[in-house]
# Entry
Amino acid sequence: MQIITEPRQMQAIAEKLRLNRQLIGVVMTMGALHEGHLSLVKLAQETAGIVILTIFVNPRQFGVNEDLHRYPKPFEKDLSLAKAAGVDYLFAPEAGSIYPENYQTTIECGALAERFEGALRPGHFSGVVTVVTKLFNITKPNIAIFGEKDAQQLAIIRQLVDDLNMDIKIIGAPIVRDETGLAVSSRNSYLSSQERNAATILYQGICHAARRVADQERDLRAIACEIEQMIRSTEGCRPDYVSFVDEKTFNPVEIAEAGKEYRLLLAAWSGTVRLIDNAKILG
Ligand code: AMP
# Structure
């Protein structure tokens, strides 16, 4: 595995790979690698000949009161995990080489980015699509894998690629969960063991929704309220939002139509840790 920190060097390598007709798959992460990230690498290996993994804690997607400065950075561990997973190139730039002193350009998102995470984290998605675009230009992928764990982000990136005519195939990868159902996340390392137990309420909420819909409950707003109540009655937990949305538009849906697929979005706090989760629910 080759480790690269300079955008120009990464670009030159990617260009050469493309001239040699290699299919490049990219997986973008903020590091603190876990099973979720590694499942994306595996999917990239199954669909592309060369896998580039990027590790970059993008300051522009963190709000002022968010966890940029305490975000975990176990770089040596990440290196060995990436190597063991068979990553071909690890691109891990410094913030200064991605955003040099005179850096000015930001990509603006549209309606998809206005609700849910976008409403609660102003500027977050603009920071995400700006860095994703830069990393696309640097790694020149044919294929890019993103996790369904960040479902709204995935939808926004699909929109970005369509809107800006980027010739990149976007693949969504299923959510990896631990044995308790908690979606694996770098931020789970902030949780105390009590908070971690409490956090499983998100997955319990998802299971509750699946059962209620299977039992012919059509009122999705009512089910979302039940889940919010479940979260509120769990010690140390409070919901930010629970909502069923249309898969494509992310517009909230109140009444389920039989046979239609929806996405249930959840965001909640366990103690001081904010967690997001989601699931596809068949109406
Ligand atoms: P992050 O490092 O949190 O920015 O995540 C990098 C990529 O990994 C994103 O595409 C995430 O959606 C994806 N990802 C994070 N956690 C999981 C998970 N539990 N299962 C699947 N993909 C994930």
In short: The chain has a mean pLDDT of 98. Residues 2-173 form a domain with the Rossmann fold fold (CATH 3.40.50.620). The CA atoms of residues 35 and 142 lie 24 Å apart.
